[in-house]
Amino acid sequence: MQKFIFISLFVLAFMLSCKDKKNYSFENSLIPKPLELEFKNGELEVQENIYIVRNDVRIESSRVLNFAKNYFAGVYNVKIVPEIQKDGTNIVFEISGEGDNESYNLDIDKDGIKLSSPDYNGLFLGFQTLRQLFPPELEAKEKPETVKLPYVSIKDSPRFKYRGMHMDVCRHFFSVEDVKTYIDMLVMHKFNILHWHLTDDQGWRIEIKALPKLSSIASTRRGTVIKQNWGEYDEIPVSGIFTQEQIREIVEYAEDRFITIIPEIEMPGHALAALAAYPELGCTGGPYEVCRTWGVFDDVFCAGNEETFKFFEKVIDEVVELFPNSPYIHVGGDECPKVRWEECPKCQQRIIDENLADEHELQSYFVTRMEKYINSKGKRIIGWDEILEGGLAPHATVMSWRGTEGAVAAAKLGHDAILCPTNYCYFDYYQSEDKENEPLAICCYISTEKVYSWEPIPDSIPEYQRKHFLGVQANLWAEYIKDFSHLQYMAFPRMTALSEVAWCTERDPDYAQFKKRLQVMFKRYDKAGYNYAKHEQE
Ligand code: ACM
Ligand code: ZN
Which domains does the chain have, with CATH numbers? Predict the structure, then answer.
């Protein structure tokens, strides 16, 4: 009997240890899943010395190599070296092959690890895949037990060029460190765009040196609506602005990680914070207050006043300098009521002078005029799908949020489009039907499974228009998100699911397969210190 118990315990312990291993099984460790993935017989035992072998000393390579070095630093003895070494594990980074700049190959065999790509961007993305073959402990700089990597051959490239996550720092303010952590979250999932929503009714968050009242007045509101009890406010000021120095620091941090930050400067609506600082730019002249509640407000920038355009030109002059690598400036354009314009003599005069049919065409005049200015600075504009109303600006890219119809209409007109429809991509919505037990959210319900099920391009789109669908994005509006841990909770794991929608040409046919992989990702989040919703945890 004793012997039987002893053997049973031994078998149980063995099973548990296998189970532990299985949780990190390589087949389940990759999100987003690579295009071609072939595991082979054999394993490479990672040595105490890791050598990052550079094939190139150009400055661009240092971004990739330093990231890799920092990833292992403190856990392994890691060095960047010019050639393969005998006494350790070599990770060779090589610029070679053909394909787009984000494609890469990752090969692991008895000789070591080799990453190759036609571009540094692909090497960086390939390293993110390699990272996911290491145990989650690395995320916490903990020393794992002996690591054995599978022999594998991976060929990978993304489905979409634009893989975005949005961050609203207006409704609630987040720190420089928070924004950097958000960038880290994007990197781990092969997103490449951070859409940074910097101005809105409830706060202006980007320092503009020529317009100091944006910092001293527009960046602070004196309180916030309590829950959803319209008319009841707390008296806790919400204040914050990113200085230009901080913005440069964040942009550089993103650039080192191959993330492009697209700044959004809202016009002509969502204007109250700026109008509180510069009331002469509103149709009535104010007074205005930095808004304490959420919604769509009638007071917008006056489209008849030349001072409005001078204001935005000053803003754009500084914004283009701060975001040198973004090809786009997002100009908002959503939710701009026309009631003030209907009553305003200056706006009505503009309609007459410019021979416009109505206030919708006045909005189009506004956006097109700003587009021309932004184009003259070497950048293109993106606008929410309302910019289609009254006529689309000649070179604009449309961000389709009220369904996908905006994107379809844009593509028909030969314009590019980005898809972020509310019913799949609004991660400020509840992620469980059990709303009572969730933190307060704006409305509705989007599960991770629903995000995973999304096919972004409607079947009806003809082949020749498909190139205009640049990609996908999720939006994380922060009305009810007061701190960064809550923001992570709203993002994960829906963002994890979206990363596959954005990256994978073919997804798992069965959500359960994805869910299995998600379990490994949760361990990674635990070690990285990322909060996440637990509904999908098994
Ligand atoms: C939006 O959600 N107002 C673009
Ligand atoms: Zn006006």
Answer: 17-156 (3.30.379.10), 162-512 (3.20.20.80)
